[in-house]
Amino acid sequence: MKRVVVTGLGCITPIGNTVEQFRDSLNAGCSGIAPFDPNFPGGPPADPGLRFKTTAKVKGFDPVHNADQHLTSGVIVSADTSAQFGIVAARQAAAESGLLLHHDLTAIAIITGCACGGRAADEEANRQLYTRNARVPPTAILRTMASSGTSNIAIELGITGTVLNIATACASGTHAIGLAFHMVRAGIAPAAIAGGYEAPLTFGFLRAWDSMRVVSPTSCRPFALDRDGMTLGEGAAMMVLEPLDAALARGAHIYAEIVGFGMSADAHHITQPRAEGAGLAMRRALADAALSGIDEAARRVGYINAHGTGTPTNDAVEAAAIHQALGDLAPRIPVGATKSLTGHSIGAAGAIEALATILALDAGSLPPTAGVTEVDPGLNLDVIIGEARPLPQNKDLALSNSLAFGGLNAVLAFRRYVS
Amino acid sequence: MDDVESRIIELVAKSKNLTASDVRLDSTFDELQIDSLDKINLSFAVEEMFSIEIPDESLNSLKTVRDVVRGVETLRAAALPDAASS
Question: What is the pTM for the complete model shown?
Fold first, then answer.
């Protein structure tokens, strides 16, 4: 088994379109959640009839005029915004790591998470079709493919190895990184680009979530006593995974080591989570770390980046899962939920939270959970609120949880890298 | 430049993020880097703009901007008698 490290990062998010911006916002607790423009194409003017008023949108993404985000006209017309986010984030990560110069392009893997595909194109085409019997543009097919970003990353970078997209709702990005980690650790792929992308904030999508009655009227406050729901978001995060020896051989910067990955299914209910399922995925991630040479992994966990959606149900069940997985250690482990800063970007969420976890370990600084003034005492968790705090001494592992609708759970275990 | 020419040049330019002055009637699709997908998209936009239907067999013969203009003019002229008689 190879030790697997992260040597390149990239992101397009509501709190930054570069890793530096993202890290600064993260540490300062600067949230990307803000009121949205209520005038949606085809929607009622001014009042969209939604119970909530905020989302977490990406700002300043301009692939036509911004050279760093440049995409060809062919990609812009044929790829949804979600895919565009993913392509640019992957480009950043690949450029930083330099993996294209050091690994076999025919064997590198690209594994992404995108659950929603190109909702904007789908909705607009259907609106035009059903309201005026309009013809559907040929690009509608290409823009709605969830794997469009995945393919375009391969095309841009010339990578012909294992290339696939995973759609497991809110756990997609975590599943993608976890599978890539296992492939690189086992030597199936010499290196991988993994992450997630999503841009689902269309009128129809927001209306559907409104009907689910799980969206906060104001903004998500994970683990707060007064938490009242999630906030929807968008964005992308990508990372380069490669064996430690390859990274060391060329002196690449190592952000963190990935040491474990655990998956499970609740096999219970399409929306109601069970603590047993999430707890099992956490235990499996910790047990998997043994294959990466980590002993007594549970005792080394100094940070949990929770799924932490801010819904009353998720946070209570996740807290119970943390207690099940970590037992007596659970109340003393710092827990944070960066969805309070980035919103919930569905298929990209796990990747963005993995990015946050990696940066937290790299800096030894755990980002605060925004908007929370009083933690729910019934959860019995040490939730990070107010300001960033240091990674506890003698702790070098962090978990990143993703618990998807449908009971699909995925948990990554990272280790702070010290050369 | 007549109306059809200028509208098609605008469409071509917009589809490739160019200005209209970058596109000439004699510009070839190769010069403009219009690939097969671009051609399908451009044809769709032209069909929508001029309310015509470009036959599949004509698509392959389009190599320049002028070909598109001529094709549109031909299709519109062919449609006129029907329009006049309706």
Answer: 0.94
